[in-house]
Amino acid sequence: MLFSEVYSAYFNAVAAVITEALDGKLSVNRINEIIRERAFSESVLSILPALKNGEWAVLDKNFQTPIKNIPKMPLTTLQKRWLKAVSLDPRIGLFSVSMSGLDEIEPLFTPGDFVFFDRYTDGDPFTDDEYIARFKTILAAMQGKRRLHIKYRNRRNRLMHVRIIPYRLEYSAKDDRFRLETAGGRYTVYINLKQIESCELLEEYDAEKLIAPKRRAAAVRFTLKNERNALDRVMLHFSDCRKETRRLDNGMYDVTLWYEARDEREILIRILAFGPMLRVTAPDSFISLIKNRISMQQTVSRKMADSEN
Amino acid sequence: MAYRELIKNMSRIRVYMREFFVYGFKSRDEVGTKSPRSYDNEKRRLESWLGDFMSFRQDAGGKAVFLSVDSRHIPRNPLYRAWKAASFTKNDINLHFILLDILADGKPRSLMELLATIDEKYLSSFDCPDPIDESTLRKKLKEYTDAGLLTTGKSGKQYLYSLAADTVDLDSWQNAAEFFSECNPLGVVGSFILDKYRAPKPTVFSFKHRYLLFALDNGILLDLLAAIRARQKVALELAAGRHGGRRQAVIVPLKIYISAQGGRQYIAAYSAWKKKIVFFRLDAIVKVKPLETEAEYEALQETLKTEQPRIWGVACGQCRLEHLEMILAIDPKDIHIIRRLEREKRCGEVTQTSENEWTFTADVYDAWELMPWLRTFIGRISSLTCSNKKVEQQFWTDYAAFAAMYGGGGNAV
To answer: Which of A90, B208, B257, B299 is the most exposed place for a label (fewest CB within 10 A)?
Structure first.
C-alpha cells in the first residue's frame, strides 16, 4: 500500500528520536530539532506530547527508551519492486547499482508500460559505454568536489576546452537529455553531455568558497482567454514554472510566468502553441518577438500568394 | 472533529493541492466541495507540509492561496510530503518500533511469544500502558507480512514470525534513487527509499520540465500498473466533469501515456462498451477498482500497438484517418528548425522538398491534436492543408485572430 504510516514523516522522526535516545544524549530541544528536520512544521505539536506523556511507548519521561536496537525497517516489497523496475530503465547504466537482493523480485512496472508521447526523440545515448564513463566521471567529480577538464563541441561544432567546477547535472524529461551546469568560470556554461568528447578529473576545489552560478531570471505576463478549455491546458502546461494567476472579468485571466532568461526562445514557442488564447502584455521585448514571428509569417504568406498569382 | 495534521486518505487533499498548485486564484468559497471548516483544515495542513512554497494574495474576490514553485530550482518534489502524512493509532506506532526491535536478533517468534515480550519487556517500562490484545497483534503481523517486512514459517501448528531478509545493497542505490525518485512516474516510492539514508548526499541533480503535480496521482498510477501487470479489467470512478456528477467506466488498462510537455498523464485502455481504445486523464480518476482478468489482454495490447502510429497525442479510434501536410520555408542556415522537425515529428514524416522547403506530413486519427504544435512554426508556414477542412480553417482563423491581437505584426510588417 502506497499511503501507509510505515513511510510516514512521523515514523521517520520517531525512529531518529529513538536512535539518539539510545546514545543517551536526548533533550527536549534536540527532539524538537529532529521533528523539524524529519516531519512537518506543526508536527512538534503532536509528536512531542505523545512522546513525553508515554502515549507512544517508545520513550519514557526521562527520555529513556525500551527499544534496544537502532530502528531499522527492512525494505518493503513495494520498495524492492520499485528498485527492480528502475533497474530495467535504460538510464540505470549511469549508476553503479548492485542487484543483490533483487533477483527474485517482480518489477513494479517495466519501461514498456509507458509511452512518453511528446518526448523528443534525439535524447542522450544512455547505453553508450563512453557516455556512461563520462557521466560517471562527472558524478565522481561532483561528489568528490573536484574540478574537471572538459572537451566538448559547441553549437557551431567548435571543439572547446574548459576547466570548470561541475555544479548540477540537469535532466530534462522533455528533451530526455542531461546538461551540465558549471561554476567557477568567468560565466556559467551549460554543456550538453551528449556534446562532451572527454572529461578528466582535476584537483579538489574549496567547496566553502564555491559561488553558485547566477541564473538570470525573466518574466512574461499574458492574458488568457478561457475558450476551448484553455485555462486548464495553460495552467497544467506551465505548472513546471513559477507562476501567479489572477482572475479578471469575462473569462479572462492575468498570468505572470517566471523563467530563466536563457530559455526565452523555448518560452516563446510554448506561448505560441496556445495561439490567440494567450496575449502577451509585457515585457515589450517579448511582444516584439511575437510580432517578429507574425511579420515573418506574413512575408512567407505573401510570397506564396505572389507565386500562385 | 478536532484538527489533525495527518490524514486517513489522499482523496480530499489531492483536490486542494491541485487547486492551489495549478490554478491558485480561487477563493475559499470555490475550492473543494466541503464546508468552510474543511477548507481551513486542508489549508492549515498544506501550510504545515509546504509552508515554504505557499503564498497568499488578497484581491476583490477574496483571499487566494497558491503554491508557487519553480520545479527547476528544487532538488526534491515537495508534493511527496502528502504521501508521508498517513494517520495511525498509538498501537500502530508502538507495535511498529517494538516488533522491529524484538525481531532484530533474527530469531523467529510465535504470536504468543511476541505478545508476552511486548508486555514484559516494553510496555512494563510505562506507568499505565494499554495492553496490546492478541487480535490487534495478529492483524499487525499479517499487515507487515503482506507488506514484506516480516516473513512467516511454521513450527508444528504455530506460525513463527521473523524480520524479512534484506540483502539489498542500499548504499549502491543512493545516486540512482536521487535521480529516479524525481524523473520516474512512480517517484514517490523512491522518495520513501531516500528517507532511509541517514546522511543525504549533496545535491547533484536538477530537473527541467518536471511536473511536480504528477506526485498527486501516484496512488492511481500504482493501482493501474497493478491491473496492467495482472491483466485485469478495472472500474474507474471519475471526478465530476464540467457537465455533471461523477461518472464510471469499465476498461482494460493497457499503457500509461505521459505528456512530458503538457503536465498530463493518461491511461490508454480498451473500452468494451465503446469497442475502441480510449484515454482517461489520471488526475480525473478518483478510484480504481480491480475486476476480473481479461482473457483477450494480449490481443488488446496488440490493437493499441497497431493503432499507435496513427495517434499523435491521446486521441484514437475515429473511423477515418486525417491527412495533414505542412510546408515550411526554412533557410538552410536555420538548421535548428530542421532538427526540431526531426525530433518532434512523432508519427509524422519530414522530407526536404526543395532547397528552402521542408514538408511535414502525418496521417492521424485526430488532426486537431496537432494544432498547438503547428502553431509553434508560425513564421515559416508556406502552406497547411488537412483532409479535415475544419482543422485547416480553424488554424488560419486562429492565426488571423492572433496576428490581429498584436496589430497584425505591428511596425515589423
So the answer is: B299
Looking at the domain A129-209, which fold is it?
Answer: SH3 type barrels. (2.30.30)
Looking at the domain covering B322-412, what would its CATH class be?
alpha beta
Among residues B221, B197, B223, the alpha carbon closest in space to that of B76 is found at B197
Cβ-defined contact of A142 to B10 (cutoff 8 Å):
no
Q: How far is CA A85 from CA A172, B37, B195, in A?
A: 21, 42, 19
State the Cα–Cα distance between residues A118 and A173, nearest whole angstrom: 10
Query: What pLDDT, in 10s, does the model give residues B16-36?
Result: 999 898 888 887 777 766 677
Distance CA B308, CA B277 (A): 10
Pick the CATH number of B90-163 from 1.10.3720.10, 1.10.357.10, 1.10.10.10, 1.10.569.10: 1.10.10.10
Residues of A in contact with B383 (CB under 8 A): 304
For residue B376, which residues of chain A lie inside 8 Å, CB to CB?
269, 272-273
CATH number for region A217-305: 3.30.70
Q: Is the pLDDT reported for residue B409 higher than 50?
A: no
Indicate the range of A9-23, A133-147, A202-216 predicted with least confidence. A202-216
The b-or-e profile of A176-214 (16+ CB within 10 A means b, else e) is bbbbbbbbbeeebbebbbbbbeebeeeeeeeeeeeeebe
State the fold for domain B214-310. Answer: SH3 type barrels. (2.30.30)
B290 touches chain A (CB under 8 A): no
Sequence letter at residue B308: Q
| Residue B267 · residue B253 · CB < 8 Å | yes
Query: d(Cα B177, Cα B168) in Å, to the nearest integer?
Result: 13
Q: List pLDDT tens digits, range B189-235.
A: 999 999 999 877 888 999 999 999 999 999 999 999 999 999 999 99
Residue A265: alpha-carbon gap to chain centroid: 21
pLDDT one-digit tens code per residue, A274-293: 999 999 999 999 999 999 99
Structure confidence at residue B242 (pLDDT) = 67
Q: Which three cell numbers stand for residue B296?
A: 483477450
Contact list in B for residue A287 (CB cut-off 8 A) is: 406
Query: B12 Cβ partners below 8 Å, 6+ apart?
Result: B32, B34, B38, B42
Report ipTM for this prediction: 0.96
Percentage of chain B beyond pLDDT 90 is: 78
